[in-house]
Specification:
- Keywords: Oxidoreductase.
- It comes from Streptomyces aurantiacus.
- One of its GO terms (molecular function) is FMN binding.
- The longest helix is centred in the N-terminal third of the chain and has 8 residues, at about 15-20.
- The protein has about 170 residues and is mostly beta strands.
- The mean pLDDT is about 95.
- A hairpin with a 2-residue loop joins strand 2 (about 30-35) and strand 3 (about 40-45).
- The chain has three helices and twelve strands.
- It has a single domain (about 25-150), classed as Pnp Oxidase, Chain A (Roll).
Amino acid sequence: MTATPDLRTSRLASPDLLRSVFRQHAAGVAVITARGDQGPVGFTATSLASVSAEPPLISFGVGTAASSWPAISRTDHVGVHVLGEHQQDLAATFARSGADRFGEPTVWREGPEGVPVLDGVLAWLMCRIVTRVPAGDHRIVLAEVVLGDPAGAGRPLLYHQGRFNGLRE
């Protein structure tokens, strides 16, 4: 039996409240990549969403303080990589500030439009950025799918309670 939410323990909106609530929300894990002026850039995202089937559009959020934001703010194309549960280390590398994200052991190659494409992912897309929408300290990026491949093997990586996890049966 589930309990009714207790309104007496509710808290006013704050960054901490939002983070606490979203720790309860399991999310798929993706890595967004782009070609930057100084080389490839990328970051781990749990905000990836399908927006529209016609035309095929996706969205993701990126912080304006993120090291990848300058490249994402200027580029026309991005790579979107859905990670498998075997890729917890890759997700952690792309989430870590100051990490050499494209050095060993990351395996990648340059794809269409110069977009970095990661090897071994469950699925990937190459997308053309349509717009960037201001949203507080982030930008919501809307991008149209140009091409991709859903044929990777394995099960998806999830992010929950501040940790990367696989699905349980």
